[in-house]
Amino acid sequence: MTIAFVFPGQGAQTIGMGKALAEAYPAAKAVFDEVDAALGEALSQLIWEGDIETLTLTQNAQPALMATSLAAMRALEAEGVSIDKATFVAGHSLGEYSALAAAGAISVADTARLLRTRGQAMQSAVPVGEGAMAAILGLDLEAVRTVAEEAAQGEVCQAANDNDPTQVVVSGAKAAVERAAEIAKEKGAKRAVMLPVSAPFHCALMQPAADVMAEALADVAIKSPAVPLIANVRADAVNDPDEIRKLLVEQVTGSVRWRESVQTMAAKGVSEFWEIGAGKALSGMIRKIDRSLTSRQVGTAEDVAAITAG
After folding, report:
1. What are residue 157's DSSP bridge partners?
2. Cβ partners under 8 Å of residue 66, min gap 6
C-alpha cells in the first residue's frame, strides 16, 4: 500500500481541536507551545477555549490549523510512524504549509509566522465586502471557467479551487461572483453557494498579498522536504527549495488544483490518503475524485491509536 499524507485548509477549524492530542502526547503539546512562542501570544488558548468567530479570522485560522496538523504528526511520530511512511505530502491552500512543515522543509516556528503574515496579507488585500467566493456544485472545471469568463464583465472572476469533479469554487469581485452563481445555475449547476469568507482567495485580487509573501518567504530558510510535495498550483511533485518558494508565492493568486493533485498521486501509485489534522473535508473530496482510493482521518488521539494499532 502506498500512502500520501494530506493536510486540510481553512474551514476545518473547530474550538478544541488538538487539545486531546496535546494532553495525550508531550510532543504534540510542544508544537502548540512552539507556535505560541513564535507568534508571541497564546494561540493555543484561543484554539481550545476561545470563540469560533475569533478563531475563524484568517490570521488565526491559518496558523491554528497548521499547529493542529503538526500536533497530529508529532503524535504519529511518538507512536513510531514517521513522515517517510508517506510517498508524497500535499495540502489544500494553507495546508501546503503544514505539509512542508511536516516534511521538515520549513521549521514550525517559521511556518507559524508565515501563516500569520499570509492570513493578515490576504485579509487586507481587498476591502471587506468587495470580494466574494462561491462554490459551484455539479459543473466541471471547464464549465466553471466558461461561467467565470462570462460573469467577469471587466471585473476579476476566476476558478479558484478545483476541489473535485462536482465542486469548483469561483473567486473575485463580489458582483462578478454573484453573477457567476446565477449563470452557473442557468447552465445546469445543481447549486451555487456563496461562501462565508472574508476575502476572495486564490484570484488576481490577491496580488498585494502575493507581494507580501514574496518578501516574507525570501527571508525564510527552506530545505528539500523529506518526501516530495505535490504543489497546489502545479499538481505535480516538487523538491527544490527555490521552486517551492516560488510556488508558494504563486499559490496566493493561483488556483488550488486539488482534483488534479489527487489524480497525480493516484497515477504515481498512491492508494491511501491520511488526512492529518482537523476535519475530514479532504477525505470527502478524495472519494468523489476516485472511489477506488481510501482515506483515513488522523486528527484525534483516538485516530492515532486506531492507525498505529492496525
Report:
1. 172
2. 7, 35, 94, 97, 98, 101, 111, 112, 115
pTM score: 0.97
Active site residues: 93, 202
- Residue 209 neighbours by CB under 8 Å, 6+ apart: 118, 121, 122, 124, 125, 252, 253
Pairing type for strands 191-194 and 237-238 reads unpaired
pLDDT digits (tens, 9 = 90+) for 98-133: 999 999 999 999 999 999 999 999 999 999 889 999
Q: Are strands 294-298 and 272-276 parallel, antiparallel or unpaired?
A: parallel
What whole-number distance in Å separates Cα of residue 40 and Cα of residue 29? 16
The string of pLDDT tens digits covering residues 43-58 is: 999 999 999 999 999 9
Q: Give 31-44 pLDDT, tens digit per residue.
A: 999 999 999 999 99
For residues 62-88, one letter each, b for 16 or more C-beta atoms within 10 angstroms of the residue's C-beta and e for the rest, the string is bbbbbbbbbbbbbbbbbeebebeebbb
Helix/strand/coil percentages in the chain, nearest 5: 55, 15, 30
**3-state SS assignment for residue 192:** strand
Whether the CB-CB separation of 148 and 200 falls below 8 Å is answered with no
| H-run or E-run covering 27 | helix 26-39
